[in-house]
Amino acid sequence: MISSKTSTLYLSPPRSDLWLVVGLRVLAAFAVALLTIIIWCLLSDAWNVFAEVGVARLAMDDDWHPTENRFGLAPMAIASVASAVGSVVVAAPMGVGAAIWCRFHSGPRVSRAFRQMLALFAGVPSVIFGFWGLTTLVPLIARTHPPGASLLAGSLVLAMMILPTIALTSHSALEAVPSSYLAAGHALGLRHGTIVVRVALVAARHGILVGVILSLGRALGETMAMLMVSGNVVQVPSSVYDSVRSLASNIALEMAYAAGIHRSALYACGLALIAVVALTTVLSDRILHAR
After folding, report:
1. Angstrom distance (rounded) from CA 267 to CA 44
2. What is the pLDDT of residues 147-204, one digit of tens each?
3. DSSP character at residue 135
4. CB atoms inside a 10 Å sphere around CB 280
5. What is the mean pLDDT of the chain?
6. Going from the N-terminus, what domains does the chain have, and what CATH number goes with each?
7. Which residue among 175, 224, 237, 257 is least crowded, i.e. fewest CB within 10 A of its CB?
8. Alpha-carbon dihedral sign for residues 282, 288, 289, 291
9. What is the maximum span of the chain, computed from C-alpha positions, in angstroms?
10. Buried-state track 202-216, b at ≥16 Cβ within 10 A, e below 16
11. What whole-number distance in Å separates Cα of residue 273 and Cα of residue 173?
């Protein structure tokens, strides 16, 4: 009995492509080696704080006071994840909606101009978003919930930064849906909106999810914009109006003058940030390959 599951068949490359295959393997190995070296360097530099303070205290302490040898990473890790998830919650519906409009409800010229504008928007430096958030968004929030620099401000600024990525990747995923799927929907007498929601979005869901995951990774590692608008207070937020500090912002703020075990703790921040991104990648990979 032949199994319904297909297996990947490995074919040896022709001799003419052998050097190309070897070169690609070398580049892939170099990428893995580079990541391994980065993690090893962070781990070796963070070893002092692991040995003196302990991993448990680093993970469980709820405050950050380097002069008292208190290096709690949990509040900043929670703030990093909360701001990134909040930005995705805000940006994903708008990005997917913009992609649907661009793909199914606009003319070719308008669609092309809109995508070019999104590409330009995606290339704006993060410090510009942070500057806009500091001078416009933070004072606006401060009118009702001072001081304004908060988790909400950080999430909204991050949402603006990742919106173009989600919109462009979602458009590419929708554009890759075979036209026969859409034609079959029309042949069945389905409405245009039903075809978009029940056919196109379902067929493109993995590509859309990949774009969301890429955007989440960028939001988790964003430094300058979060540093400018989040308030930089090490605490577990009890509401979206509380000031917070992310792991990346903490490294940028204190690396210039840190020394000794304090500097080692900042390397531990880097390891924690990599761990959060790796966990997000693993979870997203499971979602993508779920049946």
Report:
1. 9
2. 999 999 999 999 999 999 999 999 999 999 998 888 888 888 888 888 888 899 999 9
3. I
4. 17
5. 88
6. 74-254 (1.10.3720.10)
7. 257
8. positive
9. 71
10. ebbeebbbbbbbebb
11. 29
pLDDT at position 142 over 50: yes
Give, in degrees to the nearest 5, the angle at Cα 75 between 141 and 232: 45
Q: Which candidate, 287, 273, 263, places its Cα nearest to that of 47?
A: 263
Q: Which two tokens stand for residue 79?
A: 């703030």
The model's confidence at residue 60, banded by pLDDT at 50, 70 and 90, is: confident
Model pLDDT for residues 91-115, shown as the tens digit of each residue = 999 999 999 999 998 888 998 999 9
List all residues 6 or more positions away from 87 whose beta carbon is below 8 Å from its beta carbon.
Answer: 154, 155, 156, 157, 158, 159, 161, 162, 215, 219
What is the value of pTM for the model shown?
A: 0.86
User: Which amino acid is located at 123 in the chain?
Assistant: G
Q: How far is CA 135 from the centre of its chain?
A: 25
Rounded distance, CA 129 to CA 222, Å?
Answer: 11
Tokens at 68, concatenated:
């008292």
Six-digit token string for 257 = 């003058």
- Written as six digits, the tokens of 57 are 């205290």
Residue 30 tokens, joined: 């170099």
